[in-house]
Design a protein that fits this description.
This protein is an alpha+beta fold. The chain has one domain. It is built from 8 helices and 12 strands. The strands form 2 sheets. Strands 1, 2, 3, 4, 5, 8, 9, 10, 11 and 12 form a 10-stranded antiparallel beta sheet that branches. Strands 6-7 form a two-stranded antiparallel sheet. Helix 2 packs across helix 3, helix 3 runs antiparallel to helix 8 and helix 6 crosses helix 8. The longest helix has 14 residues.
């Protein structure tokens, strides 16, 4: 049994603040060393019909449903363990976020971005993949590097048709490094914020929620929902892509720990073998968004979305690095 599951099954009575603190302290001292993890529009030839999302609509919700007040009993033989409290997971992430280093010349995000495409003529799905690296300076200058990673069939059912078709890449791109000649901004709930504005976000959970609610544009894809509902859909970018200060990221995690609407699926392993906790939200019309976080490093490992009628995750970002670095911009390579 791993550490997370073991602690989740230790208690057999409603948790107190003391027990929550004890669990958190044990996890904080026993966690592994953090791995550094961490958007350009996809070009889609006329043959392909991609399922596109706006930047903010594609942001995966990161709020969670609080625990019912009791921790699961120690399992009998053959009984599956339940995931630990989502509230505890987020509070652990908040504590690590608050102590994360915030020094370096560039804000750097390295990610693998995957998007699903359907070949309507030959009836199969494929995933186009790109490696994207971004380096941003506080003065607004930025660089973005790209490298195509080829395409893969979305499911085993799609593989034969994909191979017969010559394994085409629906969104090919050559290795390149571009310098942005405009002032770099970061999308926060749909609003473009400069580095200075991001640094000025409040580090109190309640005040941060209010600030994010004010940042939501009137034409936001989730307009018409409550402010909290919209905030849930834009916070993951704040945690994964935006150079928010450590105390602001900690406040974001603490804010999510108080918001209802999403469940935890427990511990999972991503494509690169990294362990994290999967949080899931079900939206309208059967759309499901998932965010995987590593609570011991406070880093977002991946965000993804599934929709009815599509056989797999059609919009996914795998974060390889997200943080400050002194390394110079370059065409990205897989670490």
């Amino acid at each position: 049994m791993d550490e997370l599951q073991m602690i989740a099954t230790m208690l057999d009575e409603p948790p107190t603040q003391q027990s929550e603190d004890a669990v958190r302290h044990r996890l904080l001292n026993g966690m592994r060393e953090p791995e550094l993890p961490a958007r350009r529009a996809w070009r889609r030839p006329a043959l392909w019909s991609g399922l596109g999302l706006t930047a903010t609509a594609a942001a995966v919700a990161g709020a969670v449903v609080l625990s019912s007040g009791t921790s699961p009993r120690a399992p009998d033989h053959g009984t599956a363990t339940q995931p630990m409290s989502a509230k505890t997971v987020l509070l652990i992430a908040a504590e690590h976020a608050e102590g994360a280093p915030a020094t370096g010349r560039y804000w750097h995000v390295l990610r693998i971005q995957s998007r699903a495409f359907r070949n309507e003529q030959k009836d199969y799905w494929t995933l186009g993949r790109q490696l994207v690296g971004q380096w941003s300076l506080p003065d607004g200058r930025s660089w973005t590097g790209y490298r195509g990673l080829g395409a893969v069939p979305m499911t085993a059912r799609d593989a034969p048709a994909f191979r017969r078709d010559g394994s085409p890449d629906p969104s090919p791109i050559s290795p390149t490094l571009d310098k942005d000649t405009t002032t770099k901004t970061f999308l926060v709930c749909g609003s473009a914020m400069t580095f200075k504005q991001v640094q000025a976000l409040p580090d109190d959970p309640g005040k941060l929620r209010d600030a994010l609610s004010r940042a939501v544009l009137r034409n936001h894809p989730t307009a018409g929902r409550t402010a909290d509902e919209v905030v849930k859909y834009c916070v993951p970018d704040l945690l994964s892509f935006v150079p928010a200060p450590p105390k602001v990221r900690a406040a974001a995690y603490r804010m999510l720990a108080t918001m209802p609407g999403v469940s935890t699926r427990g511990q999972v392993t991503d494509e690169r073998g990294r362990k994290g906790i999967a949080l899931e939200v079900r939206g309208r019309r059967g759309i499901t968004d998932t965010v995987i976080i590593d609570p011991d490093s406070s880093l977002v490992l991946s965000t993804s979305r599934t929709v009815p009628g599509v056989p797999g995750q059609f919009d996914k970002v795998l974060y390889l690095r997200s943080g400050w670095t002194d390394g110079n911009p370059e065409i990205p390579t897989l670490p």
